[in-house]
Amino acid sequence: MKFLILSENSNGSWPYLHFRGLGSFELTRRISDAGYKSTVLDWFTYWSIDELKESAEAWFGNEVEPVIAISTPFNTKDVYYLEPFLLWAKAKWKNLTVIHGGGRVYDPGVKNVDVFFLGRSMQIFDDWLHRRDLTRYKVNDSPLVLKNLDFNQYIDVPVIPTVQDDDFYTKDDILGFEIGVGCKFNCTFCNYELRGAKISKLADSKSLHKFFYDSYNKYGIENFFIADDTPNESDVKLEILIEALEGLNFHPKITGFTRLDILAGRPKQLEYYKKIKFDSLFFGVESFNDKASKGIRKKSDLFNVYDTLKKLREVTPNTFLVAGLIIGLNGDSEKSIRDSIDRVVEEKLLDSLQMYPLLLLKSQNAIMGEGYMSELESNPEKFGYKLTGVTEPTVISGDLVHKAQWVSDWTDYNSAEALADQLAKETAKRISNLNHMEYAGLRSLNLIDKSDPEFYLNLPMIRTRSFSKSTRLKKEYVAKKVNYFRSMKNA
Ligand code: SF4
Q1: Is the distance from the beta carbon of residue 185 to the nearest atom of ligand 1 less than 6 Å?
Q2: 187 lines ligand 1 (CB under 6 A)
Q3: Quick one: which of 139, 161, 320, 399 has the fewest CB in 10 Å?
Q4: How far is CA 418 from the centre of its chain?
Q5: What is the Å distance from ligand 1's center to 103 Cα?
């Protein structure tokens, strides 16, 4: 077998950014371990169909078992773009297999794909690659749809990319890595399938050091994102990161998530944050109200989170700090939410605030089942939320879902949505609403500067400029990779 991996991760929430995908690295590693060759085409919707055809011809040549592997973590509909290319490829190579992974949902509108991998696909992919029995995963025969409900953190290992010349990096790229897979917590609103994980395989600091070293010294890359859901769930993860940074000839700018209540409960971690100097951080605070936090299994009553934010500001003043708040939780109130927002804005404890109503989603796609639902979604009544109906279906992350209409002890879904919108409007001139990843993407292109206190007032113009800059970067990458295939053909 020989693999052409087509990846597209940039048509989700931020089409104007240019992060490199993480999944394709892991695919490449597993394919290589099995003794096969592969190469990655990033941002495939930026390739013309002719460029895709020419490249596939050069790569596969007379290969008897060609495989096109498509990875779309955020938008399955990107595969629609490939239809003429896949039709052409299927006519050209009779033994061609086309596989697709990255989503939780089977979209029957995606044509010319032979095998769909749903959910956490690496276990299924390994079994498929090694031609093992797939019966236990099968939910559809033609096309073959395989789903994995075995949420096993032993199988998924943390991804540390091996950076290679045929990926044509430039200094503007932003690369991801993981220290551990899974999260040991079990917040009631969270639908991450590897939550409540007891054991995690952790990355080795030497491999991580080499990844940073090679990325910078070969390609000039300084920007990274840590994909772990909770990098500070244990001190060990942070210690691994600090060890990896030691002795580098540059300081990586890293963005990631952090649990503020854990940081508050383990002041020792502030010393770690001082060393790591994250470029930006996202805290899923959800609520600054003790009672509401407890109800979702966060613990802000035990510690003073405001004080922790202040201390974090002192130890790492250049880190861009973002918090997310959920509007509508039991135990909360409009007054409590407004007071907390006023406090973090007035005391400049945060750089950005994102507010959203409590979302309880009901998928129209029954294929994935309970494992992909939060406890609140599975059993809202148990947590004191009464359901009164659902909204019209809407597409979220490629899935057709209904939003449940709920009533909590002080509000309901529609009022919470209206309040979130109102608060966003009221705070728009006082604090930004950027997510940490969006900040990292825009900052990496030198389009924003945290030291400008009002940069966010120009965001529409900044996003437009980012779109043209990132499109240029993607097109330059495509041109280099096409030349790489051309040289293969002419060799
Ligand atoms: S919300 Fe974050 S901390 Fe809570 S279970 Fe999910 S991944 Fe873990």
Answers
A1: yes
A2: yes
A3: 139
A4: 27
A5: 20
CA 253 to ligand 1 centroid distance, Å: 23
Q: Considering the domain boundaries, does residue 60 fall inside one?
A: yes
> Is 77 among the domain residues?
yes
User: Does the beta carbon of 186 lie inside 6 Å of ligand 1?
Assistant: yes
Are 84 and 193 part of one and the same domain? no
Pocket of ligand 1, candidates 188, 229, 293, 300: which has the most ligand atoms within 8 Å of its Cβ, to mutate? 229
Q: What are the CA-CA distances from residue 53 to residues 37, 50, 476 (Å)? A: 19, 5, 18
- How many domains, the chain? 2
In tens digits, the chain (491 residues) has pLDDT values of 999 999 999 998 899 999 999 989 899 999 999 999 999 999 999 999 999 999 999 999 999 999 999 999 888 889 999 999 999 999 999 999 999 998 777 888 899 999 999 887 888 999 999 999 999 999 889 999 998 877 665 667 899 999 999 999 999 999 999 999 888 888 998 988 788 887 668 999 999 999 999 999 999 999 999 999 999 999 999 999 999 999 999 999 999 999 999 999 899 999 999 999 999 999 999 999 999 999 998 876 555 889 999 999 999 999 999 999 999 999 999 999 999 999 999 999 999 999 999 999 876 665 555 567 889 998 999 999 999 998 877 777 666 778 899 999 999 999 999 999 999 999 999 999 999 999 999 999 999 988 887 888 999 999 999 999 999 999 999 999 999 999 987 77
What CATH number does the domain containing 64 carry? 3.40.50.2300
Q: Does a structural domain hold residue 179?
A: yes
Output the residue whose Cα is nearest ligand 1's atom 6.
190
Q: Are residues 132 and 234 in the same domain?
A: no
Asked if 142 and 216 sit in the same domain, the reply is no
Residue with CA at minimum distance from ligand 1 atom 3: 185
CATH number where 244 lies: 3.80.30.20
> How remote is the C-alpha of 225 from its chain's centroid?
9
- Asked if residue 296 has its Cβ within 6 Å of ligand 1, the reply is no
Query: Which residue segment(s) compose the domain that 125 sits in?
Result: 2-119+121-155+472-490
Dist. CA 113 → ligand 1 center (Å)? 33
State how far Cα 393 lies from the chain centre: 24
* Residue 490: CB atoms within 10 Å: 7
- In this structure, the answer to whether residues 13 and 59 fall within a common structural domain is yes
Q: How far apart are CA 201 and CA 154, in angstroms?
A: 7
In a domain, 465, yes or no: no
